[in-house]
Hints:
By secondary structure, the chain is mostly beta strands.
Amino acid sequence: MTNQPSNWQKSIEGEWHGLPSIFDxxxxxxxxxxxxxxxxxxxxKGSTMYYMxxxxxxxxxxxxGRFEVSDIFAFGVIDSDKDxxxxxxxxxxxxxxxxxxxxxxxxxxxxxxxxxTMVPILPDMQTQVYSSLIYDGPKICTVFNGIYKVAFDYHxxxxxKSRIDAHCEGEKVNGRNPHILPSKKNGxxxxxxxxxxxxxxxxxxxxxxxxxxPLDLLRAxxxxxxxxxxxxxxxxxxxxxxxxxxx
Length: 247
């Protein structure tokens, strides 16, 4: 613990609100988990506590009793930009930041499961994309997936509350819909992927282009091209001669 928050801790200040969808192992939508959570750094103590309030909505099936909880999750955190250690009692494990993405592995006694959670913060620094796989041993038992928005005065400001509530209503409509690629239309995606090494240091940016072409109603082909850019102090050889992969 230090008397200053890490860069990751600074990036997640505030209270994050979402309505992630819950899916079973067959991909069936079985409900929502209304969540607001915060990671709070205490300047006087130089320590961090993480709090998470959850409540299932429109949920059914055998997993409901397992994931509905009667109290707020809370656990101490050893704050760091390398390894954020979750000290329990409600989550025990670690989160590993890679820039504005955290890759977390931890155990939840309340949910009786191991979790693998990926949370990138989008460039607006107000949006998190959340995906969590929950395991029974080596087998996935359920998936949480959704988008969070940050707020600093949700419980006091009617305008903020309206904005966040509207976001959650949108999640209720959109979150349950599977991402189905078109079966009769061609398309393409372009974007940038930040590249980090195993040491959690940034290597550069990968410019990605994907061409998508349906072959029939059941099959499609995509061609993917990537070119690495440079780290500021080290030139990385571009992949200009690479061949597209055909899937």
